[in-house]
What we know:
Blueprint: E1 2-8, H1 23-31, E2 38-46, E3 52-57, E4 61-64, E5 67-70, H2 71-78, E6 84-94, E7 98-107, H3 120-134, E8 143-146
Parallel strand pairs: 7-8
Antiparallel strand pairs: 1-2, 2-3, 4-5, 6-7
Amino acid sequence: xxxxxxxxxxxxxxxxxxxxxxxxxxxxxxxxxxxxxxxxxxxxxxxxxxxxxxxxxxxxxxxxxxxxxxxxxxxxxxxxxxxxxxxxxxxxxxxxxxxxxxxxxxxxxxxxxxxxxxxxxxxxxxxxxxxxxxxxxxxxxxxxxxxxxxxxxxxx
Length: 156
C-alpha cells in the first residue's frame, strides 16, 4: 500500500527518444527526475497484493493560495455525485489566489427528481460542498459549468 511516481526501468518498443527540436527538454522532463528511470508523469498506487492503479497526472496540479491540488483528485470526488457522469477541472489566472479553479461536468442522463431543469445553482452548491467536505474548503471551485461535451484526447 504505497503511492508514488510511475517510473519505467527499461526501454520498450516505440518509446519516445527525444522532443523535436528540444532534446534538452526531453531529458529534463523524463530522465533527470529519477536517474536511471523513465518518468511517465503519472502517479500510481500499489496495493499490498501488487496491483497498480494509476491515480492521475502528477503535473496536472493547480496552486491555489499556496496549496498544490491535483485536478484528478477533485474530478474523482465530483464524479461520485449521482448527477455527474464525468468532469474536468482546469486552472485559470486569479489576481488574489494565483490560480483559480473551474469545474465543468457532464450530467448523468437521469431524472434527478427536480424535473428536467435541475437548478444549476443548487447542483453547483452541492458539488462545492462535496469538495469542501472530502478535500478542503480551498479546493472548492470558483465556477461550476454544466456542459454537453468534455474535451478528450484521442485515447479518451
